[in-house]
Specification:
This protein is of the alpha/beta class and 462 residues long. It is 42% helix and 11% strand. Bound molecules: pyridoxal-5'-phosphate (PLP).
């Protein structure tokens, strides 16, 4: 059967209508969701229909059911976790990726996607000042980027110890010691667990959560054998960056592989004003970052970068008689990611970078950091509020008179709906966390959000 020329028209037209209705109001509606997960479960719970339904009607129903439970991540006043919005060009390119429905595993099968992703990869390496010959894989997010890089690290450090992990596995081989900062992201632990490397050794961090290089040196000196050091560019609480140049020098002196988790922080390197935060980072062996955070590409997209593409291929490449390997250029995408079948996630990255250009990318990162500083200054003016971190990038943590008050303010801000921030604990203290990650945040959003926090605090104090 050939597809009727107009087969997609009605369902797509409805989807565009609902998408526009959402995008038209995402900046003005209450930021939080209007309904709980339980309420949504109840409205979705119905038996599977016995027979088919009209696709356009299903699209309408889906939009109607989801609407009350959507969080306005795209709002300029959403500051929870570390969540990017979506730039118009990224969304439009992502729609095309869906319409084209290419399985971007092999260059032979989907040369357009492979070429667009290779071009995006080259631009990313250029923007971030990383080695141009690095292997780059487009994965689902920072977690899988960490996994992909650490799988490459595992292959490389064991190969140096004479072990072929792909053939021989881990059992009976030399142990791989993994050292991480006390405040590394939990996804690093998850990646190590999936890789069979167990729990890492945590190295002491300073007041901003940066790994202490003297403690790292001591830890590395206490044993020999294969070792991996995970550094962090961008702490989720403080935004702080590990001292890259010093830590990498120490780790390399001990023969360790150095991986950098820079899910949102790696992009500081794209800004001349902020790149000193990442000084020396290019000497590491692998880097993980997200495109769906700072770069504001649609969910989901992470980027795994490995300086030496050979262990990456060794860890992730697969061969099967029915696949067709590409012997040219960068090789096949499937050699640089854990998946075989895969969405062409790098295509919206290409479109986004093509649209922003070098200066636009730098300006985006600088704008996020500037708004974070403005939010910190505004919040600090609230009587009883203390900004507890040194605001060097996009993250702000604020505490109020005591933990109960901070918790109550966090709850109240969310209920109020004008802005959205998440609570957390940092260094034994309750904090209200602010992460500025959305391209659309402007000066007015900053003022309104400070007002929302002041209002929440006054309501509790009063
Ligand atoms: C968000 C984040 C991750 C995990 O990335 P996902 O995209 O959520 O998988 C890892 N490290 C840091 C520092 C992060 O902020």
């Amino acid at each position: 059967m050939s597809v009727r020329r107009d087969a997609y028209d009605e369902a797509l037209a409805r989807a565009v209508l609902h998408a526009r209705a959402w995008l038209d109001t995402v900046g003005t509606r209450p930021v939080g969701t209007g309904a709980t997960a339980d309420a949504l479960r109840a409205s979705f719970s119905s038996p599977l229909p016995d027979g088919p339904s009209d696709p356009a009607a299903v699209v309408d129903l889906l939009a109607e059911l989801c609407e009350p439970g959507l969080m306005a991540f795209g709002s300029g006043r959403f500051f929870g976790w570390v969540i990017g919005g979506t730039l118009p060009v990224a969304l439009a390119a992502d729609w095309l990726v869906s319409a084209w429905d290419q399985n971007a595993a092999m260059a032979y099968a989907t040369p357009a996607c492979a070429a667009a992703e290779e071009a995006a990869a080259a631009w990313i390496l250029d923007l971030l000042g990383l080695p141009a010959s690095s292997g780059v894989g487009f994965v689902t997010g920072g977690t899988m980027a960490n996994f992909t890089c650490l799988a490459s690290a595992r292959t490389a450090v064991l190969a140096r110890a004479g072990r072929d992990v792909a053939r021989d596995g881990l059992a009976g081989g030399p142990p791989v010691r993994v050292l991480v900062g006390q405040e590394r992201h939990a996804s690093v632990d998850l990646a190590l667990r999936l890789l069979g490397l167990g729990a890492p050794h945590a190295v002491a961090a300073d007041a901003e959560g940066r790994i202490r290089v003297d403690a790292l040196d001591d830890a590395l000196s206490s044993a020999s054998g294969p070792a991996v050091v995970c550094l962090q560019a961008g702490n989720v609480h403080s935004g702080a960056f590990d001292p890259m140049a010093e830590a990498i020098e120490v780790a390399h002196a001990h023969g360790a592989w150095v991986h950098v988790d820079g899910a949102f922080g790696l992009w500081a390197a794209a800004s001349p004003a902020l790149s000193s935060l990442t000084h020396g980072m290019a000497d590491a062996d692998s880097w993980a970052t997200d495109a769906h955070k700072t770069l504001n590409v649609t969910y989901d997209c992470g980027i795994a970068i490995v300086a030496d593409a050979a262990p990456m291929r060794g860890a992730l490449g697969v061969h099967a008689s029915y696949l067709v390997a590409d012997e040219h250029g960068a090789g096949d995408p499937l050699e640089r990611v854990p998946e075989l079948s895969r969405r062409a996630r790098g295509v919206p990255v290409w479109a986004t970078l093509r649209s922003l250009g070098r200066s636009g990318t730098a300006e985006l990162v600088e704008r996020l950091a500037r708004h974070a500083s403005a939010l910190a200054a505004g919040l600090e003016r609230i009587e009883g509020a203390t900004v507890v971190n040194d605001v060097v990038y996009t993250q702000v943590c604020v505490a109020f008179e005591d933990d109960d008050t901070t918790r109550a303010v966090a709850r109240r801000v969310v209920e109020d709906g004008a802005a959205w921030m998440s609570g957390s604990t940092w260094h034994g203290r309750e904090v209200l966390r602010v992460s500025v990650s959305n391209w659309s945040t402007d000066d007015r959003d900053v003022l309104r959000s400070v007002d929302a926090v002041a209002r929440a605090h006054a309501a509790i104090a009063g």
